[in-house]
Amino acid sequence: MTFQIPSDLNPQLMALAWMIGRWEGDGHGTWPGRGDFDYGQQIDIDTFGGPYLHYISQTFTRDDDGNPLAPLSMETGFWRPQGDGSVELVLSSPEGWSEVWVGRITGARIELVSDAVMRTNSAEVPYTGGQRLYGNVESDLLWTFDRATDDVALQPYMWARLRRVTQ
Questions:
Q1: Tens-level pLDDT at each residue, the chain (167 residues)
Q2: How far apart are CA 78 and CA 65, in angstroms?
Q3: Which of 20, 34, 109, 165 is geometrically suited to a Cys-Cys bond with 135, CB 3.0 to 4.6 A?
């Protein structure tokens, strides 16, 4: 799908303009005690005129035909590019944590590290921090998420290749 930058895009968002739209595809993951797993994913990224992008990611199990069966996880938040090539990402998850990520935008590559993770007392996982990488490769959105918890040192957790389905 050809991507066009919206004519009314806030100028601060130009470095992230390639991310706007709906992305869908397949992902994979691994975690101690859970083993390897596959999932479907949908990411929606949109602009509302301000100097930020709204982001929502949903992962789910799939049936044999590839149709969504049951939700796995969800996160929502805001991409906040800064004028110096840095970016902040603020996320929240119904699993009981909120995160602040900081990083750099280098062309169509974004590298992030967690700056803060706040957990509720009932958070499903004792999550403490991580690293993320987002990139535009052959017009697809590739991303990786390395995670650490109280019990597990930083290691690969989830990764996916998603194709743009709407702008």
A1: 567 888 889 999 999 999 999 999 999 999 999 999 999 999 999 999 999 999 999 999 998 888 889 999 999 999 999 989 999 999 999 999 999 999 999 999 999 999 999 999 999 899 999 999 999 999 999 999 999 999 999 999 999 999 999 87
A2: 33
A3: 109
Query: Any residues with CB less than 8 A from the CB of 149 and at least 6 apart, and which?
Result: 125, 126, 127, 128
Residue found under tokens 């859970």:
34
Task: Give me the DSSP letters along the chain.
Answer: ------TT--GGGGGGGGG-EEEEEEEEEEETTTEEEEEEEEEEEEE-SSSSEEEEEEEEEE-TTS-EEEEEEEEEEEEEE-TTSEEEEEEEETTTEEEEEEEEEETTEEEEEEEEEEE-TT-SS-EEEEEEEEEEETTEEEEEEEEEESSS-SEEEEEEEEEEEE-
Least Cα distance to 31 among 68, 69, 72, 70 occurs for 72
pTM value? 0.94
Q: Which two tokens stand for residue 127?
A: 């999550």
